[in-house]
Amino acid sequence: MPYLSPISPGLSWYEDTAGPRPEYPALDGDRQADVVIIGGGFTGLSAATHLAKAGTNVVLIEAHRFGDGASGRNGGQLGTGQRAWAEELEGEYGFTRAKALFDLAEDAKAHLLEFSAANGIDIDYMPGQMSVAHKPRYVDDYKAHAEIMASRFNYPHITFMDAKETAERLGSTHYYGGTRDTGTGHIHPLKLVIGTARVAAAAGAHIFENTQSTGITSQGGKVRVTTPNGTITAQKCLIAVNAYGGKLEPISASHIMPIGSFIGATVPLGTDSKVIPGGESVDDSRFVVRYFRKSRDGRLLFGGREIYGVNDPKDIHIHIRKQIAEIYPALKDVEITHGWGGYVGITVPRKPFVREVMPNVISVGGYSGHGVMLSNFFGKLYAETIAGNRDRLKLIEELKTPPFPGGRRFRTPLLFLALNWFALRDRI
Question: Model's pTM, two decimal places?
């Protein structure tokens, strides 16, 4: 029987193609550590790896299996920069800070590729990403963005595409223009999760699956994390659960909201397919963004149906096929072999959330759909912080990231109403 995540819906194509997925033991008994990490996705596993390589005694616990959340089930696109365009950040924070945030993200991109290569992790990297406009009035913004990235942010890899070039590169006339970025690409995310866990264990990190945190306390310079079968006592703690925190820690929960995002994988389209002939990944200008790409074996991996809240959707295949057909009418009857989802952590301004939520306890998440690249690097930045250098993590800590309005009781329905309003605007 194929493995199904207990916390994320559907059968993942990544699960079927990732190769061997080692199982790690559950925690059994009390532990002492320098650092305890809660969460076995990209952030937590990266932090555990870099801490262990630096000689830190680190214990990581994951409530289910590594990669069962969004880290192992996402769209696989790296992107460039932060979630917001660099010029938008410049308008809010000024050029110097915006450039520093952009450079940090470029460091994150380089780190992910270098880490994978250095540790022999085949992540199915494929180069190129296109961002496309679903309304004519957005086209000028994309053209200006390409010029700004080259002239102000020293990033010459983004070029503008008019409607004709966009149609040729997409194999679809659905969009009106956009940009092509040759300085980034897309990956098989679960292969990265599996590989990072392997490297962390080999470096001496004590990593445990199927071990749920039942509480966190910080008193007298000690952090205690309880589980059903033991308590971990440490000097420091990293909360890296992102959208899957539930009621574990209230400050993180008030700032990070789960959004369900869902993906379908088609049968291989064949070598004669006109769909994305260059192999780039694609994202569009909708607020409820559609994102798609082709796999190494020529399948179309298409994501875009978002659900606000945490109720699992039904009929993933039907809704994904309908969205595919809007862009590629010839694929209206294409066979979808896999349909799956995961919950992405978003914040109000769609900027990452990094906060010391209690003494010696830092929470990291809220990547807002830009986490493949950033989350791995933030794990490294947390390890830098433990080593005494908090400068780069501070760039993110100091971002303006307010809590969601409405408190615990009303924030989900308020967000549902707000984001469905934006989804309606996407269509008109």
Answer: 0.94
